[in-house]
Amino acid sequence: MFTAEQLKTFTQHIFQSIGFSEADAQLAAKTLISADLRGVDSHGIARLAGYVRLFDHGRLNPKPNIRIVHETPSTGVVDGDAGVGLVVGPKTMEIVIEKAKNVGSGWISVQNSNHFGIAGYHAMMALEHDMIGMAMTNAAPLVAPTFSLEKMLGTNPIAVAVPAHEEPAFVADFASTAAAYGKFEILQRKNLPAPLGWAQDANGEITTDANPIKNGGALLPLGSDREHGSHKGYGLGSIVDIFSGVLSGANYGPWVPPFATAGFMAAAEGVGRGTGHFFGAMRIDGFRPADEFKGHMDNWIRRFRSAQAVEGKQVLVPGDPEREIEAERLRDGLDLLDPVVQSLEELGKRFGITL
Amino acid sequence: MFTAEQLKTFTQHIFQSIGFSEADAQLAAKTLISADLRGVDSHGIARLAGYVRLFDHGRLNPKPNIRIVHETPSTGVVDGDAGVGLVVGPKTMEIVIEKAKNVGSGWISVQNSNHFGIAGYHAMMALEHDMIGMAMTNAAPLVAPTFSLEKMLGTNPIAVAVPAHEEPAFVADFASTAAAYGKFEILQRKNLPAPLGWAQDANGEITTDANPIKNGGALLPLGSDREHGSHKGYGLGSIVDIFSGVLSGANYGPWVPPFATAGFMAAAEGVGRGTGHFFGAMRIDGFRPADEFKGHMDNWIRRFRSAQAVEGKQVLVPGDPEREIEAERLRDGLDLLDPVVQSLEELGKRFGITL
């Protein structure tokens, strides 16, 4: 068991070792470990070695000049300067929050970035300002659109965070696929098959293969197949891709570069710069008084949470499961898988840092 | 067979007969018939009698004072004054387009409206201004969240329209459910079962009942069940509900009033005013030069459309099917079902208008 603080400090020191400023390393560590805290283990410290590998391959700039390259009062494009998405994201959220303070809302599309951790972390930055926050990102192609044999989209997640008054915030944060990639990784480790509807094989047939990418297959969009609305999941993933990639001047669709994970390291011929993100913030009182709105959000949340449920189940409000895991892990600590601990020990050894 | 012009003229005259101004009646007719043209027959002229019934029940104001009740440079709330959504929608889109011209983007949440036809029509209004358009709406509860026995959300559609240069625009327009309600209506008429994954029965079990609402069941969110991501479809429908209803001061969740369709006429105890919508527009050149962007959209669209497909299929770009139907129906005319023709003849008889 590790404490969150322990993991944050270790992560910060690793990032400082590859040239990050102390402030950036601290911010990157906070963003990264928020994934572990919220139960999205696949996007947390398990990826630290991947970020270092990105640096080793010259694809991560430890001292980026993150800046606005074009803007209007409510919109703009940020150049991440090949900095880590874990830092580019929060810095861009600060800009959209500032724009929202000035003119009601802010919307920034980001080019030249890379993996930003969990989308929910960024969206939630808006909450303390009585704003709705939004974050999305494109990613390397793993997903086949409806009827496609080719992988054309990433798992392209969307997060929307909405403040309430007495109730905890509404935080939806989900991949636009039937199942997030982390779900496949869990099955791979346990040597279990995937449910039908999560993936297709190299011939476009549905499969229970829990490692479909390795075998020439692809993940399926939310909806799984045409009859169950996969064209909607594909549409949603496309919107994320266009907002994040085409609007910013980053790569998009099949051209999005891979994260530095084993097996995904091949170079991609680009149509833009790096990975793209899209962030937004809307001031609640740009619509109606914040107190009034938050009172109604309490009502919304309570009504949904108390909806009559099927036997033995409860209707959850988006954000409930992650918040419960976070409370538990802050109290009891975080358990890491052996291969993750091993990868951290290797990093520690390389940079002379103990976990 | 009818021509679109014929249906528009008839619709316009019906709306004028219940007190609409000529301009509003024309606009409402254009909006309504766009659904028939794009193949969304359930949202087109088949609903005309329903709008008249809304008027008969005192829930539709033929001479609304549609106005902004609160705003910032990029956001605001519009009061639809119980006007028809078919008119409230386009008038609000004009406001968000104007805001986008001024500060880069515009976002309006609408209260006190009702059914607005197809979301795609509104979103597409932004295209000629080199803007991305967005439209969504909440609706009367037909959908059970994951694990819920109760119907808590409408089919809550989202539309996003993105301009391209030589290629036709990208237009995603979809309900946040496994299947739109119109799909059930088609099956009901043909007396066919629904595919598993579209609906649940009164006990929360999946069912092939094509009329699940009538029998105490519910439609399922996109994703169908927990294992296939129904919590994501539920999250998406919730976001639409919050943006449309809670942000505007309209009704939300289970309180959204029913459209004037047989069987859905019961009064709802409200938490706000009428039905809610949410509209947005973002100026492309608020991010990067419009020509550059549209060139990349052409590239995006061509790459996706030419993706290697499963035998006998083609990868479609969102908006392709609707555009093809529209071209066909503009050329060959529109066929209406007998019950629809009958309902129009009854309306015509009542108001002395011939189809």
TrEMBL record, chains A, B:
<dbReference type="InterPro" id="IPR043144">
    <property type="entry name" value="Mal/L-sulf/L-lact_DH-like_ah"/>
</dbReference>
<dbReference type="InterPro" id="IPR003767">
    <property type="entry name" value="Malate/L-lactate_DH-like"/>
</dbReference>
<protein>
    <submittedName>
        <fullName>Ldh family oxidoreductase</fullName>
    </submittedName>
</protein>
<dbReference type="GO" id="GO:0016491">
    <property type="term" value="F:oxidoreductase activity"/>
</dbReference>
<keyword id="KW-0560">Oxidoreductase</keyword>
<dbReference type="InterPro" id="IPR036111">
    <property type="entry name" value="Mal/L-sulfo/L-lacto_DH-like_sf"/>
</dbReference>
<comment type="similarity">
    <text>Belongs to the LDH2/MDH2 oxidoreductase family.</text>
</comment>
<dbReference type="InterPro" id="IPR043143">
    <property type="entry name" value="Mal/L-sulf/L-lact_DH-like_NADP"/>
</dbReference>
<dbReference type="Pfam" id="PF02615">
    <property type="entry name" value="Ldh_2"/>
</dbReference>
